[in-house]
Amino acid sequence: MTLEDWLDDLGVRFLINLPQEDLRDIARFCFQIEEAQWFYEDFIRPLDPTLPSMSLKSFSLKMFQHCPLFSAFSPDDHLRAFEQFMEYKTRVPVRGAIMLNSAMDSAVLVKGYKKGASWSFPRGKINKDEPDLDCAIREVYEETGFDLHEARLVERNLPTDYLEVTLKDQQVRLFIFRDVPQETFFEPKTRKEIGDIKWYKLTDLPAYRKRKVAGKAQGNGTNSNDKFYMVAPFMVQLRQWILKQRKLDPRTAANGSKGLHSVVLEEEELTEDNMLDKPIVEQPVILDASAERFWGFYGTLGCRKMVQDVLLESQAGTETSAGLLNILLLH
């Protein structure tokens, strides 16, 4: 089959038979194109390596041109629609988990699949109407294969604490789970998204302690090529939470409860040895009125990673073509 044949196949699988509601919303349509691109890279190209690999942008523009619903619009219209889709996609709230061992001195990190990918805590975008904690548990399972419910760590860590920062206008909330066995075998359930899963000593991570030897190789394989910019913003808050948790543990054993429902950050908990000059403690994101409207329209379309993102609110006309035209012109 030629590339055009495969594009026809993908159009039928993911686009042509969409409900009218989705066809009237360019964002919903773009999410379907994203699923089609994943399917193309994961399943079609392995069958025919001569087919070109395409970025989401290249694939989206090609599908816009190939799909009869959008082929009448100009390349500039296609590009503007894609750019606005990507802009709002990055504003979807993210939920995940910080998984600690029993000693609370090591955490599980995941690394992206692509070359040069950074390390992060397991996390992902939230689905429409999905509870925050459920999203975090689902993302942990998809990215590491570890089921927090099955391990009974959800119940043991109730009420569940979380740390929250805002990164590039995106709210990231990570729930904290203690007592994850270090002998756990991790294996991602998603395809071509996670390249490595590793336990890291917290003291080996940037921003956890003030004093570190520049360029020193760490015991867990840390080197200059490892990137932790998605981890560092949480380190001061996590350090404070652990110190407070250790102080509470004797009382915890006495009353049978575990955890703090609300994390109280106290600067005096830090010592000169571990304190940053300017602690990284970011405020939760505050969405403007426009973003609040988009929040109500994000959702999931399933497939490889249960895509979940903010959907643009469009003014759907009585005719599908009119609605699409209004959206593509980005009124």
UniProtKB/TrEMBL annotation:
Molecular function terms from GO: 5'-(N(7)-methylguanosine 5'-triphospho)-[mRNA] hydrolase activity; manganese ion binding; RNA binding
Subcellular location(s) per record: Cytoplasm
Protein name per Swiss-Prot or TrEMBL: Putative mrna-decapping enzyme 2 protein
Lineage of the organism: Eukaryota, Fungi, Dikarya, Ascomycota, Pezizomycotina
Entries under Pfam families matching the protein: DCP2, NUDIX
Domain named Nudix hydrolase: residues: 90-222
Alphabetized Gene3D superfamilies for the sequence: Dcp2, box A domain, Nucleoside Triphosphate Pyrophosphohydrolase
A single Gene Ontology CC term: P-body
Cofactor annotation: Mn(2+)
Keywords, comma-separated and alphabetical: Cytoplasm, Hydrolase, Manganese, Metal-binding, RNA-binding
Organism: Eutypa lata (strain UCR-EL1)
Organism superkingdom: Eukaryota
Keyword ATP-binding: no
PROSITE patterns named in the record: NUDIX (PS51462), NUDIX_BOX (PS00893)
